[in-house]
Amino acid sequence: MTANPLQIWVDADACPNVIKEILFRAADRVAVPVILVANQAIQVPRSPHIRTVQVMSGFDVADNYIVQQAVPGDLVITADIPLAAEVIDKGCLALNPRGELYTEDNIRQRLNMRDFMDTMRGSGIDTGGPPAFSQADRMAFANQLDRILAKV
Question: Is 117 helix (H, G, I), strand (E, B) or coil?
Answer without folding.
Answer: helix
